[in-house]
């Protein structure tokens, strides 16, 4: 795509999304009283932030490693509510692609989770009507809304140009918006950076299969939670497969890895083997107690 046309494409879609996110946030916050995650007053500058994904690799962590995670800060993603470890935040998707069965599953699970944990919930994708917000009113103080700003592009070159355009052509105050592109982990890292994190560790991402932690023999489901359901029926995680959809998570990471350092002086590490991320992020050095 020629540069001039791509600039116009980025500008139009970026502004359109900012307006959509702002309107959706205004409606939901006005009706239900939920706050923006950007209103939280946290200082993670002296903590390591662990982003907890659904891959089976997270089940390889030892008790000492989980103790280390607990001493720092953490953000779990999507069905992490099945896990016994309680992160500081749980970030959940709000999709228009889920059927009634899946909507019931997530809304029920989240209500059970909020009733039995100290974890706070981050709701993103406000443009979709997935959540039954009314049912979460009793937990109003634990629900936070997130406004996204999309990084556009299908190739690494387009992603890089899009990032540059946002920093130059669209250089206005968007402190209440968080970077989003392709996968929930991207937004979670942006949240960690917003709270001052200098070290972010990815746990349970980039496995060679789509096996989840709740499918391992050692997994013990959190009490009172429903049986987990399978959302990704592909034999390969689509977010990591550029033959199925572009950009892949690896391509996005390659571009944003330098951005996180330049903008926030934040380093990203792999806390689990994560074969698909070896060439992008260094391994995290777990403390030896």
Descriptive overview:
The protein is an alpha/beta fold and 289 residues long. It has one domain (3-277): sialyltransferase cstii, chain A (Alpha-Beta Complex). The chain has helices at residues 3-32, 63-71, 100-116, 156-168, 184-194, 249-264; strands at residues 35-36, 48-52, 73-77, 89-92, 120-123, 143-145, 147-150, 177-180, 199-203, 267-270. β4, α3 and β5 form a beta-alpha-beta unit.
Short description:
With 289 residues, this protein is an alpha/beta fold. It is 33% helix and 14% strand. The chain has a single domain (3-277), classed as sialyltransferase cstii, chain A, CATH 3.90.1480.
Question: What would the keywords be for this entry?
Answer:
289 residues, 8-stranded parallel β-sheet, alpha/beta, 10 strands, 6 helices, sialyltransferase cstii, chain A, two-stranded parallel ribbon, 14% strand
| Named CATH topology | sialyltransferase cstii, chain A
- What oligomeric assembly is this protein in? single chain
SSE-based structural type: alpha/beta
- β-sheet strand percentage: 5-15%
The name of the CATH architecture is Alpha-Beta Complex
CATH class: Alpha Beta
Radius of gyration: 18 Å
Count of the separate structural domains = 1
- Helix content percent band: 25-40%
**How many strand segments?**
10
Biggest sheet strand order reads 1-6-5-4-3-2-9-10
Number of helices: 6
Could you give the distance between the termini? 53 Å
Order of helices and strands: HEEHEEHEEEHEHEHE
Low-confidence stretches: none
Largest sheet: 8 strands, parallel
Query: What overall form do the CA principal axes indicate?
Result: globular
Give the overall average pLDDT. Answer: 88
């Amino acid at each position: 795509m020629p540069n001039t046309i791509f600039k116009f494409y980025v500008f139009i879609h970026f502004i359109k999304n900012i307006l959509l996110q702002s309107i959706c946030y205004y409606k939901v916050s006005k009706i239900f009283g939920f706050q923006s995650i950007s209103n939280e007053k946290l200082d993670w500058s002296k903590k390591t932030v662990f982003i907890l994904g659904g891959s089976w690799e997270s089940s390889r962590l030892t008790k000492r490693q989980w103790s280390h995670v607990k001493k720092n800060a953490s953000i779990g993603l999507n069905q992490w509510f099945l896990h016994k470890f309680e992160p500081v935040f749980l970030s959940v998707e709000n999709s228009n692609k889920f059927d009634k069965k899946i909507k019931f599953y997530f809304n029920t699970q989240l209500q059970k989770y909020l009733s039995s944990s100290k974890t706070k919930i981050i709701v993103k994708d406000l443009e979709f009507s997935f959540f039954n917000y009314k049912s979460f009113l009793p937990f109003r103080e634990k629900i936070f809304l997130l406004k996204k700003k999309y990084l556009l592009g299908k190739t690494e070159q387009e992603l890089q140009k899009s990032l540059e355009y946002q920093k130059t052509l669209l250089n206005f105050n968007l402190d209440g918006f968080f970077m989003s592109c392709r996968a929930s982990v991207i937004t979670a890292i942006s949240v960690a950076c917003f709270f001052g994190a200098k070290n972010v560790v990815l746990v349970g991402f980039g496995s060679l299969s789509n096996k989840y932690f709740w499918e391992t023999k050692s997994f013990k489901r959190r009490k009172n939670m429903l049986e987990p359901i399978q959302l990704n029926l592909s034999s390969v995680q689509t977010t990591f497969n550029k033959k199925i959809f572009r950009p892949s998570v690896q391509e996005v990471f390659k571009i944003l890895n330098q951005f996180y350092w330049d903008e926030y002086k934040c380093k990203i590490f792999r806390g689990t083997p994560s074969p698909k991320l070896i060439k992008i992020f260094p391994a995290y050095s777990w403390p030896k107690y």
